[in-house]
Amino acid sequence: MSESKSYYLFKKLSNDRLSLIFNGEVNDKITDGIIRLTDFNVNSLEDLSKMRNRVNYIMVECFQNLVRHGKPDDSEGLNDSTLFSTRVIGQANYISSINLIDANRADMLKEKLHKLNTLEKDKLKALYFEILENKQFSDKEGAGLGLIEIARKAGQPIDHSIENINEKFYNFYLSLKLASREDLMDRNHGETLRFTRQFDDEIKNSNILMVYKGDFSKESILPIINIIQERMYSPDESSRGKSLYSILVELLQNVSRHSLDTQNKEGLFMITFHDNTYTISAGNMITAETKNILAEKIESLNKLNNYELKDLYKKTLKEGMFSEKGGGGLGLIEIARECSGPLNVTFDDADNNLTFFTLNVTF
Amino acid sequence: MAEVINIPATEDTPAIRLDAGKGQIEISGKALPEDSLAFFKPVYEWLNEYYQSPLNSTELHLRLDYINSASTRHLFNIISGMQDLIDKQMNAKVIWHCKSSDEMMKTKGEELQSIVDIPFEIKEV
CA-nearest residue of chain B to A218? Predict the structure, then answer.
């Protein structure tokens, strides 16, 4: 059997202590969710918690930059999704973005960034106040204050690339690496962008809307649910929205409940969009023993129709004992009832007798 | 014993009000705690105390917007536990409040209703 997409990504991001890549339009609520999610994760990595405020600040500025310059009014059928990525690798936090801009802004932006990247700290500060005082700037342009702030907080030249797509549009790549002073001294210009764009481009050119690899405790699960609800248009109240909510809760809590390491509840979550269908996937490492139990359980659930699932649900609720993990198998039945087809799962064999288990739900 | 316990709602746990003086238990909001057993423990403890000298009539009011699978189990346990009162010839009743537009919560209520022997009313608003 060929490798599943989720396991491929899990391996690709194996050095990441946190990965969050969002590929789509961001709004304020999505921004809030992403910042909450990153904030919790960065803060819980002890050696990085000092960086927390700086990371938050730069992320907010980056988002505002994306929202403001997010995309041209008419992108004429080009892939105009905005990509935002935050990754923690070792002691470094990478923040990067890609967005489409109008060709007529490309030169101005290039010039502006070139200028910013040559300025020393105090010159940046002076420029910042100069622009603040001179209020004659357009809304969309935002006077470049955001970029100045990013440059100031990041304390480094902003790695970027503004690339021609056709005569009307350019892609604007921005990439930062927040790390130690020593790391900054050793770094070559362009190195950070070269690193981040490998993965960012791959995601941008795929049908993946979001990838998250990190902790799956409630502090992470709740903002993920908020982001997805926003992304997938479904208001809480509608029955479709409620179905989605239920699937997300059970799917994500399933990872949290069954992850091997109870201290560090790690897993991968992703959403893809293809042929007008969303596929939500959550995966984590399990033991060979759990694999057998799960495979059997899922096979038997997939033989049941909706009425039989309902009966099984009630029977399990009435008679079933709590499993060791406190879930009792109800979660899987619940997911099976809410999603339209059979449960789609993959098992990818990994090292040390472990298996990467992914549950995919189409919606 | 604690006569009244008020547990405020959070983003993932419901508000709970346990009032021994009125014989009322109320659970409202969203119930998706990460550790459902830890969350419901104070309720079990309060109920154990309350059942030592319950009022003649006890009502469990449920106003849930969402409940995850693990919490549904605890809810089932709490409702089933009310059988004790019925065995003692006392009144016990579950009142499940839900919006008529909320198919999911209505179905949840009906399913619980169908597997317990306690008087169980579904009130749609």
Answer: B34
Q: What are phi and psi of A348, to 5 degrees?
A: -110, 120
Q: Is residue A157 within 8 Å of A150, Cβ to Cβ? A: no
Cβ contacts of residue B79 below 8 Å, gap of 6+? B60, B94, B112, B116, B118, B120
Given a cut of 70, the residues of chain A with pLDDT beneath it are 1, 67-71, 73, 77, 135-143, 233-237, 259-264, 320-328
Q: Is the pLDDT of residue B52 over 70?
A: yes
The pLDDT assigned to A326 comes to 45
A28 within 8 A of A84, measured Cβ to Cβ:
no
Strand, helix or coil at A59?
A: helix
Task: Identify the CA nearest to A201 among candidates A229, A230, A175, A233.
Answer: A175
Report the predicted TM-score, pTM, of the whole model to 2 decimal places.
0.88
- Residues of chain A contacting B32 with CB distance shorter than 8 Å: 249, 253
| Interface contact A221, partner B, CB < 8 A | yes
Domains of chain A by residue range: 5-206, 218-362
Name the residue among A242, A313, A327 with its Cβ closest to that of B70: A327
Q: Given this model, what pLDDT does residue A263 score?
A: 57
Nearest-CB residue to A317 (from B35, B72, B102) = B72
The mean pLDDT of chain B is 94
Q: Percent of chain B at pLDDT above 70?
A: 98
pLDDT at B58: 96
Distance (Å, rounded) from C-alpha A164 to C-alpha A181? 33
> Which CATH number is associated with domain A218-362?
3.30.565
Cα-Cα end-to-end distance for chain B: 35
Q: Copy the structure tokens of residue B101.
A: 């537009």
Cα separation, B61 vs A52, whole angstroms: 43
A237 vs B contacts (CB less than 8 Å): 101-102
pLDDT at res. B18? 96
| Burial (CB count within 10 angstroms: exposed 0-12, middle 13-18, buried 19+), residue B71 | buried
Is the domain spanning A5-206 CATH 3.30.565.10? The answer is: yes
- In degrees and rounded to multiples of 5, residue B74 shows phi and psi of -65, -35
The amino acid that residue A353 corresponds to is N
Q: Please name the member of B68, B69, B104 whose beta carbon is closest to the beta carbon of A239.
A: B104
Cβ within 8 Å, pair A326-B115 = no
